[in-house]
Structure formats: structure tokens, C-alpha cells
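We were asked to recover a plausible sequence for a given structure. The inputs and outputs are reproduced exactly as logged, with field labels preserved.

PROBLEM: sequence recovery
POSITIONS: 753
GIVEN STRUCTURE:
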């Protein structure tokens, strides 16, 4: 009888969850969660103003001076804030100092610790609801031309009604209300359960080392290239810069471990009994908070928000940059082409890409590298130390550099074709026309090859993410102005699911079939493997599409769980899993409980671990482990819960329902809020960007064909993000018919614009 009750309960629960997600799948605006409202009314305005006055000097000194800088190579150079983000951080610092002053005044001399003040004295009432700080959102240069046929590189003017929506340097949005300790600014550190509010959360490292034992189980369906493309995609949508001080005029991370030297420090505690770090005497891991800003129109007291240094759109900003100097320095300004480099013979003249498979991302020498915040430090040959790309993380690992290079080669191929066809076009017209085509093909690959594997075809259809066929358009009435901003729960947690899929090794497979492997941790921020032979780009991409990713679960390879960005001679580095947990607390994002409830309804959660609602939710013994870490289900960090969820067999895909919902919601906003989305009809100056016949050609685009066309790869899987033992010759007639794009048709009628 009891078993029957449980079965009936589970059946009812599944049906209710499905109904709840159906409701969330509707295309609707995200509620404004920039502020939590005070339960006790309006705060003392004079107290706020006085606190702000005191904070000016403190904030300036925090940004421009202070204790020593941490030069550890464990700290990624790609996190550098650009000049605009550095200005933004001053606003966030001023807000934090003012809130701390207010908190101390309200404590009125009691004996609470700093953490207890933040937890016991909520300041939500001081974070008054208002528009976002003008220093971030009200860029005076965002003046839009309604007749412009091409995107702005910085993402502005996509939404003509709100010109700054989705612009680089603007704030990210939340799906649920923030979980800051004080409702405004302080990172989450304590249990949310009413009876346990003095109980601290487990250390982010404790969560990592307990949940993930670095168990290596290969996935049977997806290739390692899916992780590389996913990383490339993620670096298009979002870059949340870390707080850095000015050190001799240049951004540098503060020293946060073994002791804090900045109020923006949030070091990760490591136990004396840690299964790995205890062997090396490591007691903490360095961690600085993300750059913050506020919601107050006068840049005063407000809820801490995080910015996106990239444009928010799926617009190839990882290829082209997000405007300003960043985009300018990547262009050749001749024939619409992007800059490239030749690692082996820098003096030779450029030939066609088919004849030069060793072209690579542009590089800079050491001095230029150190001066340029848009480059990635990476040891290279011939004294060159860094690569340049639209996103500064392009040199994070060799396979990612190879993916970047593939798309630069593709742009230049299209630019060459346009230049040959339209001799009277100037460089700008050729560049923008090529960029539009490349971006459309990139969008198609994301939605046709990548997302269906992650979400499953049924969830793709539920959220209206499935691509259209043939010559069909997406009607203009489905364009939703006001959508498009990056969702913080995506960028901070759900979008990082691929960390579970990373392998211990980086693989290369030559055209002769020889396979080599190198440890991942030895090649982070090192592009040597991408330029050591004539077509390392093709060999890296081929090696990753013929090897399996690791299984999607709570396990993460020790190469990034214990050795992230380690020094070349060091036995240890950082912990990517712990960093993700700590970043979620830094950003004050909702917990796993909050987001599961948002996606699947209140019936899918319960504040007690004893509830049967938690049975069968997580992989294997994860529930037992999670219960040992967290006092209450309400406390579980979003990343920890999300990667531990069982995939939903009803929908397919790699992920459980919570992460799937967040990712689907993100790409729903990305697609339907983008006026320049490749499938839309008549949304740009009342016209479509492509004819129906051209759309049909774009829909033939595949990542496999790009690898065939632009590298020395001669055999390939038809779907390179899937694992398969079957491959075809690149010039196989049937494969060519399926994937060979008619570029002559795709560049036709450009003179009519």
C-alpha cells in the first residue's frame, strides 16, 4: 500500500512538474529582481547620504592603492577588466563601503562579527527600487540609426526602443530574487533555514572535494569537441570581469590568500584534511569578487549587480570583439579581412586559405601583450607571448584557440569571395557583409547542432528553439523587443555545465591518423600545441571530435579540480568546481532550491530532506552526499545541485531539468530578442537579412564542413559534436550535397543594400 502511494505521488509530481515547465517555456519578460523590498518600509535617507559621502575616498583608495598584488599564475589573466569595467568597479566599491558604514551604524556598537552583521542586519530596504546606475546603462554614445543594415559591434541599437539593451558593459539579469546575505551586497555565507541561520555554509572547496571524486567515466554519445564549441559559445555570450586593483596603472588581482588585502576578497577555505591540498600545505585558494555596480540612478546605495563585458547577443563577439579598440585591433582594414598570423614564415605573402592551413590567430610580442587587456597570456614560440581574438580567453587552452582560428579563416574566406565579386566595395562594406553571413552560420550551428544535444529535441520544441527548414522565415511578429540580456544564473552556473565534460587530456589526430595526448593542466593558458606543426588547428579539432567527453554528472577531472592554471613546475593549482560555487555566492544568485522551484513549480521542492520529493532527483549517491553537506535543501548551491541532477529521459539531452530550463530560457531570450536573428523576416529596416534561397544555403552549414574546408582534415564524422566511429571523406558526393554551401548564392545581391 505504501509503495502504491509513493508511485501515485511520483506520477502526480511528474505531471505537475511538466505543467510548471510548460508555463515557464512561454516567451515572457523576466521579472525585475534588481531589488528585494524592505519589510519595514522606507530607510533613513539621511543615513544613506552620509554613508555615501564617507565612501568616496575609501572606494578610490581601494581601487588605486593598497597591499601587495598576487602574481600567481593560478590566477587567469583573461579575467582582466577593461577600462570601462575598471570605472564601473569604482561605483560598486563606493556602494559596498556605504552599505558597510550603514550596517555598522545600525549595529550600534553590538558585538556581532562582520559576517553576523551582514546576516542579521538585512539592508534590503536601503536598496531602493530604481533604474540601473547611469554610469553603466545610460551610455550617451548609443545613438541609433533606424536604417543601419548591420549590427553594432558593441551590441547597442539592436533594440531600437532601448538602445543600450544587450550592450557590452551593461548589467546581467536574474530569473529569481537575489540571495545576498544582507539583501544588497554581501556574499551568501549562512544557511537560509530559519532555525539554522547561524550555521555557515560548507566551504566551496568542501562541496567540490566531497561531491566530485574525479571519477573518470566516458560519455558514449558526445565528443570532446562539444566542450570546446560550448566554451567558444559561452565566451561569445558572457564575460564577467573580476575585481582588480590598478598596479602601476595596470589591472592586477589583489592578494586574498592566505590573508585578505581587499574588501573584494572572498578566499576559499581549504581544510587541513583536504584529500589533495593537504599534501602541499594549502589552506586557502585565492578568490576575488566580480566587478559590481548598483541599481541606484545616482550610483548610490543599491543591490550589487554584475556586468557583462561582452555584448549580450549571439553575434560572434568572440570572433569580432565587442566594439571599440577591441574590435579595431582585430581587423586588417584591407579587403574586409581579419588579421591572421603565420607561425612558420611571417614574411611570406598571403595565399588562399586552402594553401596555408597553418594560418593562426594574430599574436603580439611581450611588451604589447602586457599593455593590452584584450589579449590572453600564453607562452608561444619565437618570443611571442599572446594571441588576439574577439574574446580575451582565446588562449585558455589549445583546442579553443583552434576553434577561434577556424572562424577567423572562415571570415576571411567569405571576405575574399565578396571582394572578388564586388570590386567597388570598400573594406567596411566587405567586412560587414562577411560578418553578417558568418554570424548567421554560427547561429545556425549553435541551434542546429549544439543545443539539441544539450536540451533534447522535445525541450527545444517546447521553448520554440528548433530551427526552421528550407526557405522558411520566422515571422516578424515573433520578435520580442526588451529581451536579450544575459541571465546571471546562466552565466554563473548553468552555462558552466561543460566543466563536467572536460577530459584529462588534450588530443590531436593528424591527417595520417596518429593520435597524441597531453595533460590538460599543463596546457592551460598555453597555445604551444596549436602552433607546433603545420596544421595543428585541424589536428586538435579532429582529435577532439574523435574522442569522448566525460560523462555529464557531478564528477570533474582533477586536471581542473586540483590543478587549474597551475604554474609549470607546481604540483597543484586552483579548483574550477569550487570557483563556480564561490562565484555563485559572490553573485548572490538563487539557490538550486530557488531555481528548481522557478522551473518546475513549488511542488518539485520541499524544505525538508525527509520529503519524498527529493527521491530520484540526483545521480547515484549524490543525494546522500548533498544531504551531508547542506543542512537544508534551501541551501544547496545552484551549480552543485544542477550538475548532480539526473537527465530527464522524457526530454532527452545531457542535463537535468533545472539546468535545462535555465539554458533554454537564456537561448529563448537570445533568439527572440535579437532583431538581427538570421531567420527573422522583415525586422531590419523592414527587410529580411537573407532571401529564402539564401536561408536554405545557411541551413546547409555544418561544423564538419567548416573543418573540411578550412583545415587539412580529409575524413570527418557527419556530426562532429556526436561520438561516432563512422566517418566520410570530405569530398564524398553525398556529404557534399548535404553540406556544401553555395556561397555564390549567399553573397548575391549585396549591391541592393
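RECOVERED SEQUENCE:
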Amino acid at each position: 500500500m505504501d509503495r502504491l502511494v509513493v508511485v501515485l505521488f511520483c506520477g502526480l509530481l511528474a505531471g505537475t512538474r511538466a505543467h510548471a515547465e510548460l508555463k515557464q517555456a512561454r516567451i515572457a519578460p523576466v521579472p525585475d529582481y534588481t531589488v528585494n523590498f524592505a519589510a519595514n518600509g522606507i530607510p533613513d535617507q539621511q543615513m544613506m547620504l552620509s554613508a555615501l559621502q564617507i565612501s568616496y575616498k575609501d572606494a578610490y583608495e581601494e581601487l588605486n592603492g593598497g597591499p601587495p598584488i598576487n602574481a600567481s599564475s593560478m590566477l587567469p589573466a583573461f579575467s582582466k577588466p577593461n577600462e570601462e569595467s575598471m570605472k564601473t568597479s569604482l561605483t560598486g566599491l563606493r556602494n559596498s563601503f556605504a552599505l558597510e558604514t550603514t550596517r555598522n551604524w545600525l549595529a550600534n556598537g553590538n558585538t556581532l562579527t562582520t559576517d553576523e552583521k551582514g546576516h542579521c542586519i538585512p539592508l534590503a530596504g536601503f536598496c531602493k527600487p530604481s533604474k540601473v546606475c547611469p554610469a553603466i546603462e545610460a551610455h550617451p554614445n548609443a545613438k541609433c540609426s533606424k536604417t543601419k543594415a548591420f549590427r553594432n559591434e558593441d551590441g547597442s541599437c539592436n533594440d531600437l526602443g532601448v538602445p543600450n539593451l544587450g550592450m557590452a558593459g551593461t548589467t546581467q539579469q536574474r530569473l529569481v530574487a537575489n540571495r545576498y546575505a544582507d539583501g544588497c551586497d554581501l556574499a551568501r555565507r549562512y544557511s537560509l533555514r530559519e532555525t539554522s541561520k547561524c550555521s555557515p555554509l560548507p566551504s566551496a572547496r568542501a562541496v567540490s572535494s566531497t561531491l566530485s571524486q574525479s571519477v573518470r567515466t566516458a560519455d558514449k554519445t558526445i565528443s570532446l569537441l562539444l566542450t570546446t564549441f560550448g566554451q567558444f559559445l559561452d565566451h561569445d555570450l558572457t564575460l564577467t570581469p573580476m575585481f582588480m586593483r590598478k598596479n602601476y596603472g595596470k589591472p592586477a588581482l589583489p592578494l586574498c590568500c592566505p590573508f585578505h588585502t581587499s574588501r573584494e576578497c572572498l578566499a576559499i577555505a581549504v581544510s587541513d584534511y583536504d584529500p589533495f591540498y593537504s599534501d602541499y600545505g594549502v589552506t586557502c585558494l585565492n578568490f576575488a569578487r566580480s566587478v559590481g555596480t548598483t541599481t541606484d540612478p545616482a550610483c548610490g546605495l543599491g543591490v550589487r549587480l554584475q556586468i557583462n563585458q561582452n555584448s549580450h547577443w549571439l553575434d560572434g563577439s568572440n570572433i569580432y570583439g565587442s566594439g571599440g579598440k577591441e574590435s579595431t585591433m582585430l581587423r586588417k582594414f584591407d579587403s574586409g579581412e581579419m588579421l591572421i598570423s603565420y607561425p612558420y614564415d611571417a614574411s611570406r605573402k598571403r595565399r588562399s586559405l586552402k594553401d596555408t592551413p597553418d594560418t593562426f590567430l594574430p599574436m603580439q610580442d611581450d611588451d604589447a601583450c602586457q599593455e593590452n587587456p584584450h589579449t590572453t597570456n600564453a607562452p608561444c614560440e619565437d618570443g611571442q607571448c599572446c594571441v588576439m581574438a574577439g574574446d580575451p580567453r582565446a588562449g585558455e587552452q589549445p583546442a579553443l584557440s583552434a576553434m577561434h582560428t577556424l572562424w577567423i579563416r572562415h571570415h576571411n574566406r567569405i571576405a575574399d569571395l565578396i571582394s572578388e565579386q564586388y570590386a567597388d566595395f570598400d573594406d567596411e562594406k566587405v567586412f560587414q557583409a562577411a560578418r553578417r553571413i558568418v554570424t548567421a552560420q554560427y547561429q545556425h550551428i549553435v541551434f542546429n547542432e549544439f543545443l539539441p544535444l544539450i536540451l533534447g529535441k522535445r525541450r527545444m520544441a517546447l521553448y520554440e528553439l528548433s530551427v526552421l527548414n528550407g526557405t522558411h522565415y520566422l515571422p516578424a511578429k515573433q520578435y520580442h523587443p526588451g529581451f536579450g540580456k544575459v541571465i546571471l544564473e546562466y552565466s554563473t552556473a548553468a552555462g558552466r555545465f561543460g566543466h563536467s565534460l572536460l577530459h584529462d587530456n588534450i588530443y590531436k589526430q593528424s591527417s595520417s591518423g596518429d593520435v597524441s595526448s597531453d595533460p590538460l593542466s599543463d596546457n592551460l593558458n598555453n597555445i604551444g600545441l596549436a602552433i607546433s606543426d603545420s596544421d595543428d588547428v585541424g589536428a586538435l579539432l579532429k582529435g577532439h571530435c574523435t574522442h569522448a567527453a566525460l560523462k555529464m554528472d557531478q564528477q570533474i577531472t582533477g586536471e581542473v579540480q586540483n590543478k587549474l592554471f597551475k604554474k609549470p613546475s607546481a604540483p597543484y593549482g586552483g579548483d574550477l568546481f569550487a570557483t563556480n560555487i564561490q562565484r555563485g555566492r559572490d553573485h548572490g544568485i538563487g539557490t538550486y532550491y530557488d531555481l528548481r522551484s522557478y522551473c518546475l513549480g513549488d511542488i518539485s521542492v520541499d524544505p525538508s530532506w525527509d520529503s519524498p520529493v527529493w527521491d530520484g532527483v540526483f545521480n547515484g549517491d549524490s543525494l546522500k552526499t548533498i544531504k551531508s553537506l547542506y543542512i537544508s535543501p534551501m541551501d544547496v548551491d545552484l551549480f552543485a545541485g544542477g550538475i548532480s541532477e539526473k537527465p530527464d529521459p522524457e526530454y532527452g539531452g545531457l542535463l537535468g531539468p533545472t539546468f535545462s530550463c535555465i539554458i533554454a530560457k537564456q537561448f529563448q531570450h537570445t533568439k527572440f530578442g535579437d532583431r538581427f536573428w538570421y531567420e527573422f523576416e522583415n525586422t531590419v529596416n523592414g527587410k529580411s537579412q537573407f532571401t529564402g534561397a539564401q536561408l536554405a544555403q545557411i541551413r546547409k552549414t555544418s561544423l564538419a564542413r567548416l573543418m573540411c574546408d578550412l583545415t587539412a582534415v580529409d575524413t570527418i564524422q557527419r556530426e562532429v559534436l556526436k561520438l561516432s566511429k563512422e566517418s566520410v571523406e570530405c569530398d564524398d558526393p553525398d556529404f557534399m550535397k548535404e553540406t556544401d554551401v553555395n556561397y555564390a548564392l549567399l553573397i548575391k545581391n549585396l549591391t541592393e543594400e
